[in-house]
Amino acid sequence: MGFWSNLFGKKETVNRNSHHQNLAWIGWDMHNHLLPGIDDGSQNLEQSIELIQGLQELGINHAVCTPHVMAGVHNNTPETISNAHKILVEGLKDKGIEFNVQYSAEYMIDDQLDSWVQANNLCLIADKYMLIEMSYLSESKALFTMIKDIQDKGYQPILAHPERYNYYHNSFKIFEEIKNAGCMLQLNLLSISKYYGEHVKTAALTLIRSGMYDFVGTDMHHTRHLEALKSVVRKYNIQDLLKDCTIRNASLFQEMEKKIA
């Protein structure tokens, strides 16, 4: 086990201060599935609004929606994503809810992705950042090639929830290699609990203590995620837990503001 086993017995920073019980310090939730009806996240406008109101209760008033783009499963395009975004924006407006919602995507590294990258047929965060993911079942052999191809186009790759890839749990070196290749890492906030399992939590805490994460996201799909997130926020002082990481969500906020302006 090595570096994994030496973590046991260490305790996370427990949140006992009420003023920490919000996520306003994050600025933007940059990974979620709030757009209605286009992937395995929110299934309709009503659910989207419910999830957004839950985020607002936690202090988050800005989000970049990142629906899945996955060949044969979630065949989203910039057009389908833009259309769902318009529906959500109009729905929020009709309800009088002030919530800054933008859109991007979470791209599965699969057989179609390279052609999308080469054609610049992408939805990026702040016209720069590209959120990518792999299968939970098996490592993508194209990961490092894709990281380079994205960079060659002038974009910045971000690997979503690296702590959830079980096939990496026996080697810390791979995370260092991914970072050294110029790819940023994004933590799922629920990973610091046992929501995805003990091994995912251990991996997340290892990466946190090594200062490896650049972004955090809720990866919110449904109300079960929302309720679990509320529990995590009550239990942990997340901002203090992440003190060894340079979390860039707030600076992303500034870049998004420039884009919107």
From TrEMBL:
<dbReference type="InterPro" id="IPR016667">
    <property type="entry name" value="Caps_polysacc_synth_CpsB/CapC"/>
</dbReference>
<protein>
    <recommendedName>
        <fullName>protein-tyrosine-phosphatase</fullName>
        <ecNumber>3.1.3.48</ecNumber>
    </recommendedName>
</protein>
<dbReference type="Pfam" id="PF19567">
    <property type="entry name" value="CpsB_CapC"/>
</dbReference>
<comment type="similarity">
    <text>Belongs to the metallo-dependent hydrolases superfamily. CpsB/CapC family.</text>
</comment>
<keyword id="KW-0378">Hydrolase</keyword>
<dbReference type="InterPro" id="IPR016195">
    <property type="entry name" value="Pol/histidinol_Pase-like"/>
</dbReference>
